[in-house]
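Forum: Protein Structure Q&A
Topic: Joint prediction for protein chains with partners

I've read a bunch of threads here and the consensus seems to be that you should model interacting components together rather than docking separate models afterwards. I'd like to see that in practice. Below is the full input, 700 residues plus whatever partners are listed. Could one of the regulars post the assembled result?
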Amino acid sequence: MTVSNTQPRPRGVTLEEVARLAGVSRATVSRVVNGSPRVSGDVRRSVETAVEKLGYVPNRAARSLVTRRSGSIAVVITEPTGRLFSDPFFPRLLRGISTTVAARDVQVVLLMPETIGDSQRTADYLVAGHVDGAILVSLHGDDPLPGRIIDARIATVVVGRPLRNRGVSYVDVDNRGGARNAVEDLIAGGRRVIASIGGPADMMASQDRLHGYRDALVAAGLGADPTLEAAADFTQDGGAAAMRQLLAARPDLDAVFAASDLMAAGAMSVLDAAGRRVPEDVAIVGYDDSPVAATARPPLTSVRQPIEEMGQESARLLLELVEDADRAPRRVILTTELIRRASSAGRAMP
Amino acid sequence: MTVSNTQPRPRGVTLEEVARLAGVSRATVSRVVNGSPRVSGDVRRSVETAVEKLGYVPNRAARSLVTRRSGSIAVVITEPTGRLFSDPFFPRLLRGISTTVAARDVQVVLLMPETIGDSQRTADYLVAGHVDGAILVSLHGDDPLPGRIIDARIATVVVGRPLRNRGVSYVDVDNRGGARNAVEDLIAGGRRVIASIGGPADMMASQDRLHGYRDALVAAGLGADPTLEAAADFTQDGGAAAMRQLLAARPDLDAVFAASDLMAAGAMSVLDAAGRRVPEDVAIVGYDDSPVAATARPPLTSVRQPIEEMGQESARLLLELVEDADRAPRRVILTTELIRRASSAGRAMP
DNA sequence: CGCATGTGTGAGAGCGCTCTCTTGACATGG
DNA sequence: CCATGTCAAGAGAGCGCTCTCACACATGCG
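Posted by a regular:
Agreed with the consensus. Here's the joint model:
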């Protein structure tokens, strides 16, 4: 431990002092503080008065030491780039988690490993039992972290459907359904040659969105076509590059489904440069409903995800797991909403 | 505490067990683990072997109990809306903080009070000494939190210059200088009637940016003019409303300095609707260099802030304060960078 | 009235660690 | 040869809390 202690720390009010003031034993004060029913009304009141008077707050370290509970959960973010740093996904998710656990007097410990070494230390930290559970956000397929902590039987909830570790609880949005809806909307608007700009293949969200895209095409009898599918990395530049590629391969395309708003924005700039008008020549829809969607010109139709709700659900699931370690894994799938804007206006609008 | 314990927690390896395996006393193992120099080479090695073999990880709760240090710091986010949820400021700041404290084996506890009641509980939590220090982010002028925790002599660093509590350490960007640079650039591009769309008046960043704007005008001999100044709330809609107001009051304006990219985007859509071309008729610069700036059409010139660095510096300052509580408050002001894009192209470009 | 049962409270152990104090081994000097 | 100093290592207290157990007392039943 690198922290030396030059200064004596201020010492708080202890149970002992409260007990003395209330004229009872430590045990009784503990009972009152923890809401045990085995305390008579008078004694309870006098203890509460003493607690109030002294401004007593339990020492979490002492409590943890004996209960073997930390009263905290970890939120692990292992995403070096991408959507977590390009739209408000991350703060909104944290807010959802935070509101839910705060109500239960549980703290959130934030872990953001960057290097492999960090990731090792993060796993050690979790496995050492410093927290009661962990929420894992944005996992790539090759991440060894979830496997390690699930093996260690740490209560775990994953945000986003995990590629491996099927036995774990997770919260996800219906990426496939969201994508399908978006593409169906393009078809309803009269589009027939619809391309897809997908995300990294090692992310479940990318795969699901691609499947949803194909679902819609197949359901409409259009059929999937590899020359209409390009993959990028959720970034604007990646979206632009994919768009150039698609335009070269399929100059006849009349719509694009992009698996992120940023990629959609990149695609739009390429379409603009190529002299294709949006939405007249090419309709486009994005994903995430980020600020970029609303500020784009034309404003971008996009798939909105209930992000706060994901945070809340993941926290709720984790707290359940912490309460009862033998509980079977659960999955919560939240639905998306298509936000229609000018970029995907149909050809035959009424 | 609402958490009951139905399940016995797994117990970790203790110092005692390591000591037994290494054939030394608990005290010696503690010395080795904490890097005390008062241990001979052989003993140190045998202890290290035992630690390795058993996979020993210190129990933080037990350690905290005796050292009166938690080995964690709080990051308090008190911003209900605005920039924290509209651009990647927040994740990037957290990342900066996280990398710095992780290197010192200190954890980050995230606190996001939403209601007044939450804020009370947050203050109680901090004052109770559950963390060694706190980083306060995005304070409005009327927030009672910083006053309370500074009074309680909790080590505190504020991100963004605080309106009150001048005696506290803080990290800020040179908002005034950044704004001044941006406006000077507009002037250098031949603009003469330059409007400002500011942020909320109760935020220091808003005030500083407004001052920087005026500085540049005065320095160029143009002089400040209240009819060219509008205030909004950092959002796109707010920026749009402010732009309408400015256009009505000063149809002769030829440039706009917006204190956020989102407001700039709102302003651009209004200019577009009013038939003013950007940058030909009206040049515009934003602030934050968010993804919105790069995706806007035309791409938006913007002031970039070193956000990760702010996080790192604030963490560094806080750790110093934790080490030595009597250390005098320090301020760190980081410089900004103007990212030139098409939206502010000069009139007489070479 | 004696015993079983229940209920409120206290005593005390002990969670895993740090840190002071003490001991013991050895080197050095007079 | 003993006094003294130095340094490694151990003994043991105690951080603030929870929780088991024991106990005192009240109540119910045969």
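The first strand of chain B starts at residue 72 and ends at 77.
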